[in-house]
Amino acid sequence: MSSVRESLPDVSGLVGETVRLWPYTPELYPPDTLVQLWRLLQADHAASKVFWARTADPASDPAPVPFFMAFMAQVILLIPQDLATGEVMGFCWFDDIVFGHRAAFNMFYRRHWWGHSAREATALAMGYGHTVMGWPTLWGLTPWALAVQHGLALGWDHLAVLPGYACIHGRPHDVHILRHGA
Q: What does the radius of gyration of the chain's CA atoms come to, in whole angstroms?
């Protein structure tokens, strides 16, 4: 029987200058971890920005926490932590996974950590996706110009724009497709 220490995820490659990424494993985290992550999203009024592809704003969902928990149960979730303060910076995740081939990368960073720390967290997550999970390509879809700039700053390729693809608050928005290869 393995010890708890042996079952902990190896995070040695997930530590940067200012950020540590923690792979989420439900058995190793407090039961309210996903609820706490939802609260961070709500505190930044970011649910509709993060979940822009949904037809309805998750914050207006009559049961947003169960939606969020069910959604996050289907993804590979990473939780970035500020090394100086110990605070959770947000979360990022991989979904639309085809093992050995590709995954979509998604992120939410609290506004306080936008900039260097968010780029470092994303770079660590990209390394995790390519090296640990073995995906040769990571994909990103976003209607947000800031997210496009974030990706470009980290070496993502901007491949295409889908004009009017997203409908956000009743208005069409272009969606940008980005790709990062290992």
A: 16
Q: Please state the separation of Cα 128 from the chain's center in Å.
A: 12
CA 25 to the chain's CA centroid:
15
pLDDT of residue 113: 95
How are strands ordered across the β-sheet holding 137-142? Answer: 19-23, 76-82, 90-98, 102-109, 137-142, 171-181, 157-168
**Gap between the Cα atoms of 90 and 110, Å rounded:** 5
Taking the C-alpha atoms of residue 66 and residue 72, their distance in angstroms, rounded to an integer, is 10
| Whether pLDDT at 95 is above 70 | yes
Q: Which has the minimum average pLDDT: 5-19, 52-66, 141-155?
A: 52-66
Q: What pTM, to 2 d.p., does this model score? A: 0.88
Long-range (24+ apart) CB contacts under 8 A made by 30-35 are 33/79, 34/65, 34/68, 34/69, 34/72, 35/65, 35/69
Q: List, for residues 133-150, the tens digit of each pLDDT value.
A: 999 999 999 999 999 999
